[in-house]
Structures
1.
Amino acid sequence: MGSTRARIAVDAMGGDNAPAAIVAGALKAREAFDIDVILVGDEEQIKGCINGELPPGVKISHAAQAVAMDDDPIASIRKKPKSSINVAMKLVKQGEADAVVSAGHSGAIMAAAQLKLRRLPGIERAAIGAVLPTVDPTKQVLILDVGANVDCRPSFLDQFAVMGSAYSQWVMGVNNPKVGLLNIGEEDCKGNDLALKTYPLLKANEEINFIGNAEGRDVLSGEFDVVVCDGFAGNVLLKFAEAVGSVLLAILKEEIPRGIRGKAGAVVLKPNLMRIKQRVDHAEHGGGLLLGVAGVCIISHGSSGEDSISSAIRLAKDAVDNRVLEHIARPGEKAEEQAASQKAVAAAVAEAQPEATGSAAG
């Protein structure tokens, strides 16, 4: 993008804490990062969350409707064309924004992204990628899908691996990312039907560095940079990891001794405790990137607060600045060309078969 600042459209009406926490997080991100922010939603409510004039680099795009958390995702997108998530997606579609961040109804966000932005060439299904910490403080692992597709075909997971590798390399800065398939064993003969059929696809895929199956205990080991799975298993894995992080922080708080010695120890340990929080607290990561659609889209937690929204906007900025869509689209275009070539060959063979049969019969 050169010196042009990323323009982030923020769905101010999405999430349990909208619009106050969403607006506060967006303003915090505007101060911390070199970006422009477009707050999308009811203009009067948004202005009510801002003291005084709009800060430089912040503007409001009015949206008269909002999608509620209990709305049907597909129906709400079609019946509420002026909803904040629809308007935000439209800004990206029209080139007025570079990315969308929303903590609203995840199903509605995915529906709006796929209907408004469409999928990238060669991609059958979009996937939500989530970044988790590992035992190695210098490494993180990208898990996908974590909820967009409960049921998957092997080809979906193969494409997830390509998209995840591109994101890991170009946004997370990992050279030749190591890809793993979530499974119940290391051996290639282990797993359910999906895993057994996906393994040979990943092994034969020259676009990725596939190193084998990843058991549950391996996911956070630092051995893998990308782990692919269906959205059902991925969502369970994500929610469990978030719960473990919350429990760990609660245990640390509970176990630090009280009294004078405890207070003195807490002061000494404070920098370490803050680093632990940054590594295990899901709010620090902001949300997941919806990979596979023709636009940068971050889906934040429904309960996101100010800090989580700010982190999500940072995530969107990184994806835009590192041109992740271009790097994902290239393999997708290649896959589409290969599929077209295979169809052409199959058609030619089918067309030639009757002639060959007739000749043999004669």
2.
Amino acid sequence: MSNIKFTNIHKSFGANKIINNFNLQGKEDEFLVLVGPSGCGKSTLLRMIAGLEQIDEGEIYINDQLVNELHPSKRETAMVFQSYALYPHMNVFENMSFGLKIEKRPKEEIEKKVVQAAKILKIEELLERRPKQLSGGQRQRVAIGRAITRNPKIFLFDEPLSNLDAALRAEMRVEISKLHNQIKTNMIYVTHDQVEAMTLADRIVILNHGNIEQVGTPDEIYSDPANIFVAQFIGTPKMNILKISSDHIISNNEINFLGNKVKLDKLNFSKKDYYLGIRPEHFNVSENNEYSFNPKVDLIENLGNEKIAYIKIDQYEISAKISSKHNIKNIIGFNSKDIFVFDESGKRIKS
């Protein structure tokens, strides 16, 4: 069992503040995904855990041991990089065993660990091949296998699937999930891909400009976003966010919204601006809706089993994700329970 703890972590490169007062308590053997836009500090955090980057302020603990000054080789972490980082002149067995040879482990132990890792990843038949003879997915399996042989307390993944095509990414996501279930140790995974975050994570940490926007399970992040940034970062297409001015407010819990007088119980609107959010997948053509409107469809994207309509209504442009078996030009409906309300600063207002 293993866990990690971050206390008041700060990191800057010159005048550029990358990580700002990062605090997080990990859980034993969880799959933790750090997600956010490029430049938000995800990879920097990973490199600080591994000891490849110095910490300006704060403390990192692995299994209650302070590791700030601990040499990378002593931290019992293993990192899988985006670029695979395989030695081209070595075959698969030699690449996977390299770290163990540096540690001067016995030959029998090295062979046992490499073969065991190869079986887990189903690459036993590749052990004699060189990296140039492997596909991208096979190379990534070798990189993961090299990490497994180290028997680390914590696996660190730095966007490991970003160089693979879409079909192979989906396959490797499944393999990494199976690996976590099999070896039961902490995994910290960095990505900007929300699909990877939602499908892999026990918990997601959403970062923006070095700050934590929200931490939660995939369901919590999707169903209960803390603010507009989180609401729009998770979900494809992103959540529709519509500005509601004081002119739209009818009473303290009723507003004009998408051609309807929408009642939002337990909310007390005052005469100021708000933002209302509704996910594209929460529009539908069912007759069992509280509210509906006639869409003016600008464009339809056909995705096979579903389609995305880009719609104009009043001064708004919205997107709706509808099953392909329905005619998108029919009346579109929605329900008040699917509406998110945010204040002027973008913070979620809960009913």
3.
Amino acid sequence: MEFDLDSCVEGVLGADRTWLGRAVTLVESTKPDDRTSATELLQRLLPHTGGARRVGITGVPGVGKSTFIDALGTYLTSQDHRVAVLAVDPSSTVSGGSILGDKTRMPNLAIDDAAYIRPSPSSGSLGGVTRTTRETMTVVEAAGFDVVLVETVGVGQSETAVAEMVDFFLVMMLPGAGDELQGIKKGVLELADALVVNKADGGNEIAAQRAVRDYRAALAMTAPANPRWVPPVLAASAIEGTGLDQVWDQIQSYFRSLTDSGALANQRANQQVRWMWSMVDDRLRDRLQSSPVVSDLASDLEHQVATAQTTPAAAADQILAAFDI
């Protein structure tokens, strides 16, 4: 059955959950016809976007990202916000399968009428975000969600991909910072707009406060992502619901700082341009991999590289030369 684009646009703008789900499925599709429809859909939704707070949340597995997002999101909906969670699940690099269990890990938001959770497999994408996370963000903003929380896999890949598509980048940490500081990547600290030490409960309160002090000291030795902003380090407990108001207050303060200085508009404009070039990279790669000429060459060249008959650089040149024909 032919996809009804007019009904989809109307449904998304009316926050109809059925059409919202269909729209996100459309922009995630890799089918050529679907991509054409998705491009038109996004073009028509674009004028209705831009009003949301876009917050990226990352952290090592086990830090409690999903529980924290469930608690923070529930706090925000109680403050009359509408919250969309784009939760990226780890995909198997072997089978391509994905757990897609975020709705079970966010039980309160899953039944909240003012919230929308969209789990998507990362499919091996760097930075723990899908190739279509930005497009999905456009759809949920057009549907009227004024806070978009992007949860990443947090497996140590390039968090730069996340930081470049959100307004505020929050890095979650665990209590017991002494050992963790030895292994923390300086680059992640440089991207952070705030650090939150989670699980400050159940006897961990003292350790959490010690971690807050240690992370503040670590941040003092790094260059902040925004020279006008000193990233705060906060303690919170997703289970007890403590510290969530302070986290949101800091996010709001950051937005006021960006808006008053005019930096928010510039930042989002630059993100749009980077998004364009990211799409160029993705689509060139897709065309390259689907090229019959490249397919004919690939197997033989892979064998030559594997058996040291030629160099990877020389083989890459041959593939690109064939693709240019």
4.
Amino acid sequence: MTYRKRYRYIYLQTGEIPLDPLGNVDMSIEHRCSSVLIWPEKERPSPGNTILTDPCFTRNGIRNAQQAIGRLGISFDTIGRIFITHPHHDHIPKNRYSRELSRKKHFKGTSSGRLSGVAVMSCPGHSPNLKTLLFNTDGGQSVCVAGDAILDTDWLNAWEYFRPNGYNAKEVVETWRSVVRILQAADIVIPGHGDSIHVTGELIKTLIRKFHRAEFSGRCPELKQELARAIGNKRLRV
């Protein structure tokens, strides 16, 4: 997916999740979402050109976020818009570390202006109204801020979803369709609870090989072919 404008981004909070795909719980791991700040290349961040995604900061997260934006020479007051991928409690600015951010304008996509190169893509499954952000970096790579459509690298590689939410078959299949849509569109994925994932041909081959493990994969067998068609493009990407 190609956009005329290009953007820079930094992590303000790197997400974590204490539950792994095998159902193991590690309470030493803090449950927090990933949050990034996006602004146009060659511009200084300002209220008119910034988007902060999923601004639900923990006590540790807000400290790291303040340090990160401080290195840019700005503050939270500088941020103009927020984007919430989906309305689950761990992604919305509800606690005392984040509540003031809820008053910011919500970014819903635009076809003009300084943020016209940032697109919104619907990716239901984990949440029926989950939306992701797509933009090109100053290096020409396509980035998708995926929210919990993809939890992190381990959950993606395991073809697993967040079972405690109690999904039905239709929602699980929607999740797999959204995962494939993201992998087709992006060179880099910012998942809901982890570090960036680089989408390469080798990663896609691995996911195709493991697709039979995905629950209800028999209801969406065409997704293997859709992933296979994307391999050629990924080989060409940096």
